[in-house]
Every structure is written in C-alpha cells, then in structure tokens.
Amino acid sequence: MAQQDSIRLNVKLNDDHQSISVEQTLDYHNPHQKAIHQIKLLNWVAAYRKRKTPLLKRKIEDRKSDLYFAKADELGELESLQYSYNNSFSEILNTAQENIFIPLTEPLQPGRKIRIHLKYQIKLPDARFTGYGIDANHLLLKYFFLIPETYEDEAQTNSYFRDTEETANAGSFWKVTFDVPEMWKIYSNLSQNNELEFEGESLNDPEFLISRITYPEFALKIDDQSIKVQLGYQITEYQKQILAAVLTNQLKFIKARTGKLPNKLFISEKFLKKEAFIGIDDLKFWKFKFQLFTDYEKTDLDYFSVISKKVVDEFFITNKTQDHWLKNGLKSYLEIQYLKKNYPEHRLLGNLPDNAEFFGLKPLKIFHASKLKLSERYGLAYHYIYTQNLDQKITTPFHQLSNFNTTVISHFETGSLLDYLSEYQGTPSFELFLKRYFSENYRQKISGANFLKSLEIFTQGKSAFLQQMMAEKHRINFDLKNYQLQNDHYLLHIQKNTSKIIPLKIETEEKSGDKSTFWKDGNSQRKDTVLLPTALVEKIVLNDSYIFPETNFRDNYLYTKGIFSNMKKLRFKLIKDIQNPEYNEIFVAPRINFNAYDQILFGVNFKNQGIFDQKFDYSATPYYSSGTGKLTGSAAVGYSIMPPDSFFRRWSFGASGSYFHYDNDLAYKRLGAFTSLSFNKNPRSAVGRSLYFSYNYYERELTPSMLAANLYAKYNLWSLGYSYADNRLIHEQYISTNVQWMEDFQKISTEAYFRWEFAKNKKISFRWFAGYFVKNETKNSLFNYGISRVSNYSFSYGLLGQSATSGILAQQFVLAEGGFKSFFNTSVNHFITSLNVDSHLWRWFNLYADAGIYKNRRRAEQFIWDTGIKVKVIPDFLEIYFPVASRLGFEPSFKDYGYRIRYTLVLNLGALVNNLRRGVF
Fold it and tell me: Which residues contact 340 (CB under 8 A, 6 or more apart)?
C-alpha cells in the first residue's frame, strides 16, 4: 500500500483581499518504481494566464471569452516561490508554468520520503472564469496550492488545469490553518478543528470558502450517524424549509443503496450549478415565465442530484480524467432509482402541458413529448446525440468529451446501462453488490476497470457486455421482426445486429394497460426466437422507455390484434415532435412563405423526420400561390450513412425538386440529385469539413420577348465543391472552393472568410472572393458573376424578388460573389477578385469597405470600391447597409439615395438555431 503524503499549510489572506501568502510543509513519498531526481508540483493558478493555456483553449471551445479578454489585474499567478529541504535553500524564478519541478540534490528512492518547505504568494483570479477565485463576497480556493499529482506517471508528464474537476491531489493528509480578518468565516470539505483550522484525509481536492457571509447548514441524524450538510451560498427561506424536509429522506435513500454516508458534505455554488438536475428550470421568454415543476419538486430534484454526487465523491478515489464515468454513472443510476420511487408518473415537460393554456386550449398536450416520463430523459438524450453521430465512447478522457457528451455520455448513458443491468440482475441483488464494493473499497484508490471486473464476477459474467459497450461507439439494435401463433404462445422472431452477448427486456401489454416483463439471457446469435404466453396480450415491446441505448427504437413494437397485427401503425401528427417509436409517423405542419411573384404562399409540409434525425427522410410541401392562384411546392428525399468510426461522419444522398415563380406569371421547375460527405470531426472542435457534388436540371417559362432575346429556357448545372469551416470564438474562418459547369461554361471560384473578435463583442471581418471562367460561350449574362447583386440562376439564395430590377425587393443584399453594397450596374463574364471588410464601430453600427478588380471579355480591367455604414438589427440575419462613398461618388448626395440602401434578410430558422447552439456540441 502506498504511503500517504501530508500537506500542512499556513494561509494568510493579504490586506488587498485578492492574494494569499502561504507557508507550506510537504511530506512527499516517491510513488514510482524508480528513483527520481526532481519533484513535480502542480501550479495550476498559472492556468489563468491570458494566452496559450489549455484552460483558455477550453473556455474558447465553450464559447466563453471572459478569460480571453480579462484585464491583467483579474488574472491569477504565482508571484514568488522559495523552497528548502535538507538545509538546502533556493528559489524558483519561472513561476509561469503549470508544472513546477523542484530539483533534488540526490535521488529519492522508491517509497522514500522527503520533507520540503515552501513559501509562496498567490495572486487569485476573478471567480467568473471558473467559479474559483475572487467573488464579490467571498473567495473560493481550489486547485491553487502547490501540490504533488496523485496520478503522476513515471515520466512525470506535465498536467494541465482545464476546469473539468480533474483529480489533482487526493488521498493526502491535509492540515490548513488560516489567518483572515475578523468577521470572515471559512468553510471547507475538510473536517473543522476550530474557526481557522481544518484537517483530514481528502478523497477529493480540498476546497475552502472564505466569506464575510454566514451560510446555512443542516445538522441531520441518519441511523444514529450525525451528518452536517454545509452550503456555500445563500438560499431562500422557502428553500430552507424544503431542504429541512427532504435532506434526511434523500440521504436515507442513498444509504439504503450504497451502505455508507460521509459525516460532512460541503456544497459550493459552483458545485450546485454543475451537478444540479438538468432540464427542470422554468422556461423564460421575454416577460413570460412558464414553470415546468413546482418549487418543491425543483429543490428536491436539484439537491438529490447534488447530494448523490457529493456522497459518491466521498466513497473512493478515482482518476476523474480517465474514469469519470464511474462516479458520474453511479450518480445518474441513483437519480433514476429516485425518479422511479418518488416521481414515477412525472413527465419530461413537467406541469407545462397542463399549465400552458391559450383560449381554453392546452396545445402542448398534443405532442408526444408531453407524454414522455421524466425518467426517459436519460435514454432520449443519448439517442439524440447518436442520431447526430456525435456521440463518443464512455471511456473517452473527460476533457476530450464535448460539452453535451459530458452529460449525455459520462452521466446519462453510463447510468442507463447500470440501471439496465440492475433490472436484469434484480435491483436488490445489484444494490447488494454496490454496498459490498463500497464497503471493501471505502476511501481507497480504485479504477473503473476494477469496478467492472468485480461486477462481472458478482454477476457470474452477465455484466461482461458493459465493458465492451463502454470501450466503443456502439451501434446495437434489436429488431422485433414478427411473431407466429403456436398454440397458447407467441413465437417471437428477434434479430440483433451484433454477436455481443446482451440480455434483452421484453414486455407485453394488455388492453387494460397491465404489463408483464420477461428477460431473455444474452447469447451470440444474431437471429433468435422467444416464446411468450398469449393471454390477453395486445402489444409486445422490446426495451421500452429508452432503457437500453439502441440505434433504432422504431422496430421494437408489434401489435397482436386488429388490422395492424404483426406490423406498425400509421399515424399523422400535427407539427414536428419527438418521434413516437410505436408508430410510423408522418408529421404535418402548416407553412407560410413569400416571394414577389407567388406572393403569400400557403402550404402544408409532410415529413417523416421529427426532432431526431433519421437515416432515411423525406419531405413534401405543396403550396397554394395567392399571387397566381396555382399550386407550387417542393419535395425532397434523402438517405444518410453514418458509421461510428470512419474518416467521415455522414455520407448523404438525395434527390429533390421544386416549382415556383421567378417573375410575373413565369414559373421555373428544378429537379436535382446530390451527394455530400461530411468528414469526421473532433466533437469538441468547431471545425467542419465537407465535400459535395450535385446535378440540377432547370426549366424556365419565358415570354415571347425573352425567347426572341435567346434567353435560357432549359439548362443543366453540375457542381463540385469543398468547404472548411472553423466557427470557434475569437477567430472564425471559412474557406470554400467550387467548380461549376454546363454545356456553355466552366467556372471555378474560391471564397475565404475570416472574422476576428478584437475586443469583447467587437469584431472585424475579412472576406475574399475570386472567380474565373475557364470557358464561357454563354448566350447572355445569366451565368455571370455578380458584383452588387447575384444572378441566382440556381434559385438557391432565397431572394424575395428574384427578377426585380428596381424597388425595395431589388435592394435585398446577399453576401456572395463580389459582395459590393453599392449598385454597380454590371456583371462579370471573365474574372473577378474582391475583398470585403466589415468592422465594429459603435453599438449596432459597423463600418464596411469593399474593393476589387474585375475584367469582362474584350474589355480592360476595372478597379471598383465602396464604403459605408452597416446597422445590425439582428446580427447575421437582418442588417441594413447605408452607402457613403464609392467609385460612383458621394452617394448620400444622389437624389435616389433611398433606393441605394441595401438590406440582408435571412428567413432561415434552422440557421438561426444552429448559430445559437454553437459550443453546445
């Protein structure tokens, strides 16, 4: 057994209340199998330097820029460090590194101890960066002291702080004495000797809250054990009353399943925010607030989630980077059991469907989402991220998980698998294992592999599938193919897409709603059969309520009665919803659109895809055109291949068609096919790369004068392109190249875009475009590059006035091709290159400038430029451009200046949603 290090600290809060002076004695034992010549100490306050730290990189990935734009006096640093041992005294001059190495005068042999004295001063960071540091009324100290790393490898590799609650030092003995001004109070997760002294063995990194405020605490008695729950923040009187009523029951519930409880629980505000129950907060929109759950329910669920994680944290020591899933999964397992017992009928949307009433109607109750149970959220969340093919292995190091996956994979999926095994094994038997395991390993250092091995032995090998599933992005699916009637039994034919040995849950449901559950032991067969009694059975279900992380739940249901026996029912649903896997659903939703020629378009959309993406999807939207009195519309069908581990994330194929009007009483129709390849990406990265190819056939109605002018009535377009996008915060960039051709032309174009946030919420962007006709034998200017206005011969830009040449519809601007805002009444049939610059000026106002060179055939090159002011009504979606000066002159002096003002209008809700959710996945 490894010997225990000890860390003794005298900590003085300096007069500025922003720094601390520390005198430290460290008894360090060499944990390695070889002699070492230096001791590594973690200096993680250095992570708060402004640039080039893993912490800053992670915050940028999370789309949080506070640390990036922080002032020097808001950052943290180790200001000085002196050390001594064995009558040797020295000083570390380079204190800006997160890993400090103290050289030894002679090698320290394995298991041998050395005592080191340290004296240093720490400038604390602003707490808004990570929750640790200086806040308005308190200081929260964690990960700031110089300590050896618990999970240090033999090579003493550098370790970095990323604000992921990683394990820095656990299992050491700590004794900390504070010197703080009078009236300040100190709270900690260590045992308290007196008002200024704390000590004890810490299974997690110690944290200390120094505050002017007295915070609430609860003294509880659980089976003759005295337990103190100490909060590090203020709560309302009503919350105090609720907690006084629920904390005892919560701790008894946890102890009944785990066997042990710690004597003290300290909960900081940061821990509360991180571990609170997800998805039960009130919905707030403008001046409206919709309450999903009562205040009592929210407090109960939030604190059960927090308390259960806090208790699990005190059971044993784990490497949170590698084995994060163990404690997080156990916490989610306890949550699931708590919901089953105390909230068995509570819905995912809580009381909202009943309370959201409009004109006497309760519209939310028509949605399947309103009928889902709260306990189904665990499987639903995983299924959503799977349908995006952005899930990750459970064993992925925690700092490599995307923000969404830190919850969905580390917590929810692991907890669901443990719950699945618990039901299969029998919950009392599974929880007996938990009690034994926690008792045998209480306050010891363990690994996730050790937990799984012990579980496999206890279950006699029945849990072996867990280790396999955790080590891969699994794509397991059970398919209930059909049944045959054999005397008084149903013979079920079941198929699975893997030879892994996984148990299967089967339920039968009677017309009355009564259910019976059967478990089938796993085997390696891909095709199998099961006999079930026929008595009163109306429906047969595999793995109901999203209990097991399957890829497809739509093939888990069969009916035994009626015209839909041995097949799925068909159902039409109004408006997009979470799909009900019990039915083949077609979602029907009203649509309203507009263009200058069809005017208001009234339509209905039919599609098979709900909230979750599907491999095969179709959509059809017939419209009634109020401007022409005719039917128009569009339709599309597609299929996607999404392998779990490949160089690409999604390979899509599809075909589509549309019919609308592009001028007064003139329609066009388009038929096309495409394929696109989205390359695999790091789920934490904002980088996306894609390759696409498309073919489109166009047919346009023409007037006699258009026919006389030899305009194109029919044409084919082929297009091949590649795009690279990095939508990260601060430095956003995009580059694409495209080759397009038809019978009469071949052209190639490249676009590059860079946007830099040079100060908080202040950005400057640069866009470069270059286009060149390799061949141009076109009959007119339809396919030319646009300077101020795109031709939109592919009908892809969503112009309100496709053929408008004057008036407000002609003033719509699309940032494409030349990208000039001033009207230059020409287009380009040879080559063009342009640069567009857009920079923040003040509040909603930006300055813009465009410059470029273009050349038409048999004419000389031309240089053009313009400048002006842009008003951002809704950034990137509704913006207005006021030209000031250009090659045309000082434009505000022109009589028709009102017609020279341009605007962008993006009526794409999907683009707006994608823009808002950046940084979530």
Answer: 375
